[in-house]
Amino acid sequence: METRKRDKSLRFGVRGHDFDAAGFTELSIKCAETGVENIQLAIKKSFPDFRKGLFTPAYARKMKSILDMNNIHVSVLGAYIRSVHFDVENRFNELDYFIEQLKYAKFMDADMVGLETTFVGEDNSRSRNQTENAYRFCLESLGILVEAAEKLGVMIGIEGVEQHIINTPEKMARLVNDLASPNVGVIFDPVNYISASNYTKQADMMKEQFELLGDLTYAVHIKDFNISDNQMHTLLAGDGIFDFDTLFSLVKQYKREIPMIFEGVNEAEYHIRSAKLREIYDRA
After folding, report:
1. pTM surpassing 0.85?
2. Would you say 102 and 138 are in contact if contact means Cβ atoms under 8 Å apart?
């Protein structure tokens, strides 16, 4: 009987704030005990007492040393801000926070700092978000962040969302082309692009993503969904109708050693989810 070799390039990670940990030491130990080697770390979400202005290179290096002791690498430093906030003071406070996170990434050796393009105004109005003005506003803010990233030598990872300004792979490709920076990459969360109106075309969307942005896709988020009463409901990976076969086939075709980060999966669920998805990955 033929035994298939395990693909060692498959790297499932987790978001740090999905594990129950009081600090970096406990988080790194729990990740090591669970077998996790890469994480998405949103410092403010993992540790609520964290605040803007604490940064020093020494502080960032200390956090890295704690993670290093347990062989934990930060694939994405999450700094999910409102970069298109209409209030000028709030907008620049958000941009300043992100730039501070770029500094953390530099000294923690994180692969990238991640953000979504979010929405203009006070609500998630699709009609307002899909205007050319909204796009230009987004481009202006991200241009400020990209300039800072280039000076620091750090990568930015942009994530699209169906309700946000950048809500399709095509629009993401336009944004990346307009930013025209080697310090910009893409975080691909395929479920973020799916809605009750387009879920039957999810395979086409994923193929478009990799055809347009395969070379710039540096991390993948992993979750699931179902549809009921014409509403979309997000689920843990493996519990819904997301087409993992197509996703993993494309990942194998286009990428090597790409972190695939679970959303919502805690330490108790990790082995169940990773085993289930590895089985799909191996046959894709």
Report:
1. yes
2. no
